[in-house]
Every structure is written in structure tokens, then in C-alpha cells.
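Session log. Operator J.P. requested a structure for one protein chain; no other inputs attached. Running the standard single-chain path with C-alpha cell output.
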Amino acid sequence: MKKLFLVLMCILALTGAAFAGDLLINGAVATGESWPVQFNANEIPDKHTISCYYTDANSSVSAVTIDVEGANDPYTTTNANAHWYQLASHEFTGPEITAMKAMFHVVDRPVSRVRINITVLTGEDGSTDKFYVLYNAGRK
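Structure written below.
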């Protein structure tokens, strides 16, 4: 089943219909940016889906905000001079905090590079509460 899923995601990526998901934040315990995803000029997406989930060992997390940031300047993903702009921001609702997960979408924002930024993280214990963010991109 896993092989079938990977084959389907590869076919979608090759046809330009969608891009396979990337785990951009893997077990974060504090605020901060993910490593950026860079797209080829002929693959620039305009649809972005962000799925975030976390563990909360002590039921102490009370606020989470995730930003989606993009860039179109000529710099590479590691260049300190790159200009990042907020494409969208998602503040977890009460039910999302309770469920310890959220999904949101950003559309009509074509950018050549994308990164995720956890900007608010209140109540985490700094060691056992882990945050994960999966990013998917696609084109119309």
C-alpha cells in the first residue's frame, strides 16, 4: 500500500497536478522557521496545504500560530539576503488546540520558495511537546 501511494504521488508530481508532501517541521519544541522548499520555474505552485499536529504531554499548550512564508527573489534557499513575506497566518482555534491538529490552505499565492514558521507557541514544556508540520503544494 505504501508503494502504491508513493507511485501515485510521483505520477501527480510529474503531471504537474500536485507535489508530494514534505515534513518541514519534524519534532520542533520551540518557535522558528522550517527549512525552505524551492520549486523549479516550471513547477511554481499557487496552492499550498499545511497540516500541523503535535503531542501535548501535560495538556499545557494554549496557543499556536503557524505562518506560511514565501519568496520570489533570485536568492537561493540558504542565502541570508533572501526576502521572505507572510503569505498567510493561522492561529489555532480552541477546538484545534483540543484536537492537537489543524489543516489550512493558502491559494492564489505563486512563489518559488516556501517555508513554515511557528511564530507563537504558548504553554509548551520545551522537551516532550513536539510539533510537526506537513506541507503540500499544487497548481490549478
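Operator note: The beta strands are 18-28, 32-33, 37-38, 47-54, 63-71, 85-91, 101-107, 113-122, 131-138.
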